[in-house]
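Whiteboard transcription, Tuesday session. T.W. wrote the structure tokens on the left side:
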């Protein structure tokens, strides 16, 4: 082995021109592959932190009657999501699964926002139990004005991204209750007509439903918020208390489930002849008329009270699921769907990529494109190094034939040739990997950011943050070894054809 490496070093320095060409190719290829792997790792980490950890969870549970699985970013259909009909049974399954670390049932959908002139706009709402939301996604948002509404309180958090389109549609500017107008955040047309600006601290919205069974709900705005990452994408969603969303869409609320009716009241509600009840006055026979109470008085009377009912008793149309790190999303989706089908629960589990539709597809496409870029570099490096090594072998025919003539076997010549390439690969490829790591951390420290939604998907967030881990280092070394292996296959065949007689051949 010592003799082989002495000959290898001698040959490298003796043919330093060719060795340098091969080394430069290996150096550039290793550097680009390292940076590419760092970009992919940074993108995956960023998407996990900025999508899975901050908004969707690993898996989303929806009704199996839901036609499209793009339940979060399907802007075109305008159709409300199908309600999960048997959430209590679904909840029992989720509570028993050890692979689930946490879950958040919620309601999601579009609502129409109204003004006094019957003009309307639209926004997307996520109805949640705010305490469970903060537990599931503790760092998802920042309050820029006002405060977060409390559990059991009617309230809405309007995103900064949704406030401007809301003003364009209904022509009033929303500020949180108790807050003051911040003129610096106004759009230019509002600043120009500041005297006539309509400023409000509540919104009136109506649920969007194909069945026309919706209600108008006035909800106070308690705060203005901004999502921590991908705000241009998630900013279309505003948060609202779960009961307000349910009322607007005519869902069963937690309060509805807590109401106990007498047999006579249940029979009264079940009757088909409501017209007769109205005409006879029987419907209002037991109404107390001695004392009336206004809505304002009722709100004052109930202010500060804790909930006396369970929010889970009402309707939901989806649930966000967080998994343990040891379980893959694909395995968890298959397992949950098998359990749901066996128990006839009429729900299904989908991955977060399916739930966000085009965003998830674009993320997969970008990752695939980056992988193809690395494979292209890989392929080009193999071809160029293979040709260079083959030319080197042919130019050294007399030298290698002379070695064969004095007793060197084919195996020794091949081992020598492989060793030369391996030394070049280790040295120059190693330098390329080191430079790639330096480039990754220089780019990361530069803090390059963007507001472009497409670039945010490439970055994995608003800031370009490539990363480098031990697995990336191992992957880079494996890629370098594979490049070296495929690069020497054909040159070894060329070397194997050299015979002692070639030592006296002259051109």
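and on the right, the sequence the group agreed on:
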């Amino acid at each position: 082995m010592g003799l082989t490496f002495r000959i290898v070093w001698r040959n490298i320095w003796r043919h330093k021109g060719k060795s340098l060409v091969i080394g430069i190719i290996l150096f550039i290829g290793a550097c680009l592959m390292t940076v590419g792997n760092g970009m992919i790792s940074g993108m995956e980490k960023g998407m996990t932190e900025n999508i899975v950890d901050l908004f969707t969870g690993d898996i989303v549970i929806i009704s199996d009657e839901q036609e499209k699985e793009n339940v979060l970013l399907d802007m075109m259909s305008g159709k409300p999501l199908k309600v999960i009909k048997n959430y209590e049974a679904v909840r029992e399954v989720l509570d028993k699964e050890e692979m689930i670390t946490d879950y958040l049932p919620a309601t999601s959908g579009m609502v129409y926002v109204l003004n006094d002139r019957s003009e309307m706009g639209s926004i997307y709402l996520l109805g949640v139990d705010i305490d469970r939301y903060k537990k599931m996604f503790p760092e998802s948002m920042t309050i820029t004005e006002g405060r977060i509404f409390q559990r059991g309180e009617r309230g809405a958090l309007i995103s900064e991204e949704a406030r401007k389109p809301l003003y364009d549609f209904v022509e009033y500017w929303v500020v949180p209750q108790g807050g003051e107008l911040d003129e610096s955040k106004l759009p230019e047309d509002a600043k120009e007509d500041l005297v006539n600006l309509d400023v409000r601290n509540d919104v009136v919205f109506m649920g969007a439903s194909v069945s026309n069974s919706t209600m108008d709900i006035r909800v106070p705005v308690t705060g203005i918020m901004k999502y921590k990452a991908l705000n241009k994408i998630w900013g279309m969603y505003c948060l609202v208390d779960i009961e307000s969303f349910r009322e607007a869409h005519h869902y069963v609320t937690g309060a509805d489930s807590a109401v106990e009716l007498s047999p006579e009241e249940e029979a009264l509600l079940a009757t088909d002849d409501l017209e007769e009840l109205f005409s006879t006055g029987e419907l209002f026979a037991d109404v107390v008329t001695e004392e009336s109470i206004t809505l304002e008085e009722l709100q004052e009377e109930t202010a500060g009270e804790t909930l006396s009912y369970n929010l889970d008793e009402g309707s939901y149309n989806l649930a966000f699921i967080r998994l343990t790190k040891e379980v893959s999303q694909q395995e968890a989706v298959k397992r949950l769907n098998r359990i749901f089908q066996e128990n006839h629960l009429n729900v299904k589990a989908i991955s977060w990529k399916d739930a966000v539709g085009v965003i998830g597809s674009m993320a997969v496409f970008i990752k695939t494109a980056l992988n193809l870029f690395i494979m292209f570099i890989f392929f080009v490096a193999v071809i160029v190094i293979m040709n260079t090594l083959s030319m080197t072998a042919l130019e050294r025919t007399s030298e290698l034939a002379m070695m064969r003539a004095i007793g060197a076997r084919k195996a020794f010549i091949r081992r020598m040739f492989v060793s030369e390439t391996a030394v070049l690969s280790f040295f120059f490829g190693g330098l390329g990997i080191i430079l790639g790591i330096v480039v990754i951390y220089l780019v990361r420290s530069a803090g390059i950011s963007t507001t472009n939604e497409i670039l945010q998907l490439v970055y994995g967030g608003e800031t370009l943050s490539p990363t480098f881990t031990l697995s990336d280092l191992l992957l880079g070394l494996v890629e370098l070894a594979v490049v070296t292996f495929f690069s020497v296959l054909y040159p070894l065949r060329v070397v194997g054809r050299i015979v002692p007689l070639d030592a006296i051949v002259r051109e």
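Someone added at the bottom: The longest strand covers residues 100-114.
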